[in-house]
Structure formats: structure tokens, C-alpha cells
Amino acid sequence: MQIAVVNVARALAPTDSPVLAAFMAGLEPVNALADSSPGFVWRLVDESGEDATSLRPYEDDLMMINLATWESVESLFDFTYRTAHLEFLRRRREWFEHLGEPAVALWWVPDGHRPTPEEAVSRLEHLRAHGPSPEAFTFRDRCPAPSPRISVS
Amino acid sequence: MDIEAIALLQDPVRRRLYEFVAGAGADVDRNEGSAAAGISRTLAAFHLDKLVEGGLLDAVFRRPEGRAGPGAGRPAKYYRRSEGEFAASVPPRDYRGVASLLAETVAEAGLDEQAVEAAREAGRAGERVPLVEALRARGYVPLEKDGEVRLLNCPFHTLAEEFPPLVCAMNLALLEGLADGTPWTARMAPGAGRCCVALSKTNEL
């Protein structure tokens, strides 16, 4: 199994505005860092082929999505919080609103599965409605990968 | 039991060894340990192994740097600080539990910036002592090398794992506050197994 992660964020301004300039400029190196990090499998990109900044998962011109799959929760955690990505994350309030509800959800997917934005949004909505469960969970309340083996004891 | 692990450090020689290993910035073998504590290699190995038994250090076996392949000899035993965390309070207190609740509340309410500013002020309000001393007093285990200070310990480790963006940002601000008015500048330098902040000397001062 691989771990899927979705992150939604509502920008303070359109992506071509000066408010988002530093965020947009920082995307390429951060994405390159993700792509070369141990455990990285796949991330969603739009027609540009570079990133997902033009995709709008909700009927909201400012709501953006980031969707990826990784080999393990640990490798995803280490990239997210223990690389230069952390500096990017630390500055998120300069560019994005505080949503007041979970913005990140994790769930297990079969190897090679590439979740769609619709699937990702429904996982996030599940987390928001029901709290952490194997359907959708958080870094703090992790659920182990479902084991394909049948228990004999 | 945490208290038994901590009690191992009551022996001054063992405590010196522990502090040497924790502050070394690299794995340590018994020869280095014996030189640092001023005791024989056999005695150093005895105490280091006691610290491993108690869970304060981890022992790892590997070939010495720069030696590999046939003829490189047997792997040597090295020591490093363990990932474990030990605390004892008499009478019982649970500041970590309440810190976790407060951090959760701050994160959910989106009060990150206020918390970060409070941390910066707390750093600035610190006593004006040389930076490395101030860092040591706060539990950071600084290692100065090539005009840079790396921090070998995150004093907020468990909380930083639970709430990374919030606690790491507060930590950076606290260190920026501490470095205020000194020739040092704090910056984010995250990496697994150490504090996410490093300090460098500012050239113009």
C-alpha cells in the first residue's frame, strides 16, 4: 500500500497577484525537492505539467489543491516537516487563509493508484465530518496500512 | 522506568560520558569516550554499555570511516544518544499534556502568528549571556563549527513532532529573539533527528 495525501488551501489572492508571488516563485524548487525525496511516488499536476496551481477542487476561485502519493507516512512526514519544505509551510499565513477545519487528509491506496481530486476531496470531507479513521486520517492520528494477510491466531 | 534511567547519570563519570556522546555531533567509540572522560578504555566501555542498557544511549556496529571491503576488519562499536525521552517529576506533574492541548487549540484557532510573536519576546527577554551559554541553558546542545552553530537537541521534540509548523516556527522565533543584538542570525535548517534551526555569524557585525 502507498499513502495518499491531500492538502487544500484558500489563497488570500489570485495566483498572479503580488500577494502570491513568493509562493509561486518557491513552488518549483519545493516540487523538485519532493520529486527527489526518498519515498516520493507521484503528485497531481495540471495541464502545465509542473504543478497543480490552476486546479480548483471546489467552486471557489481561490481554493487550491495539492495531491500526492508516497511510499510511507514516515517518508511523507520527513519531506513535509524535515526539509526546506518546512520553511515554505511556516510562511503559509502570508499566502493562505486559516480554514478553521482540517486541510490535510491521509489515506492508504493500492500501489500505483493515482487518486483523482474528487476522490481526495471526498476523503477530506470524511475526515471533517467523522474525525480520523482508516477512511481518512491525519499525521497526529495515524492509521496503519490495512494488511492483506489473513490472521491465523 | 524513567527514574532508573535518569539515576544512571548520578555517577559523575557516566554523566560526563553521556554529555560527551550527546554533544559530539557524530557517533563516538570507546577510545573517544575514554579520552573525553579521562578514564581507561575498559572502564569507558563498561559505563557506555550501562548507559545503553538503561536506554539513554544506542550502540551501533559499523566499520570505521574510510575503511570498507575485504581487510577492513571487524565492525567497531559506536555510541549515540538514543531517541528515548526520560522525565521524572516529584510530585507528578504533566506540563507536556497541557502543552499539547494548548498547541492544538492555537493551531485550530489559527493563532500561530501570536504564538510565534510570544516566543520571540520570550527569547528577547532572556538574560544577556553569550549565545552558546544561553542555548545550553535552554537545553539545545549547541555545536559550533565553521562559523555556524548546529543544535543537536530539540528541547520541544515531542511537541514539534505533533505540531511541526507551529512549534518549529515558535522555536525559530525564540532563537531569533535570543540572537537579537548578538552577531548571530537564526534560520530554518530542518533535518531528521536534530533541531530545525541553525545559527550563523552575521558578517557585517
UniProtKB/TrEMBL annotation, chain A:
Pfam families for this protein: DUF3291
Chain ranges of the DUF3291 domain: 3-141
Top-rank lineage group of the source organism: Bacteria
InterPro entries: Dimeric_a/b-barrel, DUF3291
Protein name as annotated: Uncharacterized protein DUF3291
Organism: Actinocorallia herbida
From TrEMBL, chain B:
SUPFAM superfamilies recorded: Winged helix' DNA-binding domain
Protein name: Putative ArsR family transcriptional regulator
